[in-house]
Amino acid sequence: MLDDYILVTMEEPWALLKPKLKNQPRDIIFNRDMQVEHLESLEKERKKAKWLVGFGGGTSCDTAKYLSWKWNIPLIIAPSIISVDAWLCTSIAVRVDHKVRYVGDVQPSRILVDYSIVKQAPKALNRAGVSDTISITTALGDWLIARDTFHDKFDQKVFDEAKKIVEDLMKQAKNIKVVNNKGIDALVKGYVDEVRICEAWGNARPEEGGEHFLAYCLEDITHGHYLHGNLIGLNVLVVLKLQREKAVFKVEALKKFFDEIGIEYAPGKNGIEREQYKQALESVQAYVKREKLLNGLFSLDRVFDEMGDCSMRGILEFINSF
Ligand SMILES: [Zn+2]
Questions:
Q1: Is the pLDDT of residue 286 over 90?
Q2: Cα distance between residue 248 and residue 105, in whole Å
Q3: From the CA of 27, how far away is ligand 1's center (Å)?
């Protein structure tokens, strides 16, 4: 039993955990703000304990990782929801000027996933947990572009392993939709494999590409907070289309999968205006260059056609048809 610990969480997961706890934490940190200045003030103002426990979604897990790293105390991570892969990644994501920055690494002493707790989170949030495994679909096309146009390092074995993660995940659509044990197994396994592959490879190449960069670019423009899985879902459809013959998966197959599991990828459902998305599409190439992100679709000089499906107008019409 943990004798002396600080808990990092949010109000909703805390309400689930509180009645189950025998030993109360020394202190509870409720955090929603991932700006680095705010995290630094938490680090200075709060007193350390022997242990740090992160319990919640991505924000709670990343806050806990940050504080455990800064304070150099052991960490236990327990996701209350499977919506992003933050609870498995050792890298610590914070925001600097509303942009994602990875500031350090931490290895949790233990990771606990309580399925009974995960099932109590809204289904839509858990389903959106396909985000960081399904982004493999477009990351792989970007990898082909990076190999063929920019002569980036490539490994067929890693590529095939990543592709298989998505194929396995897509077979579990029915279970993911209802978030039953098999569905949670599939989400967790997808994440475990994806994180393992990326950490062995040395960066997020097998999992992250244009779909994420377009999301970061949009967030940079609007400073909006979007449900990661929904926004990545939308961007996966757009990027697959724009990858043309380099796309490793079919747009229709992914759209069907999202519809089957109930991912809300329509921009209107996520508070994204047509004009904002257009701006993101227009500036993403410059953004990728400026932020020195991995080579891929948006590193190409020409991404859009003058006319047709892959023109700016064609893409905007495509996403507004959802
Ligand atoms: Zn992500």
A1: yes
A2: 31
A3: 30
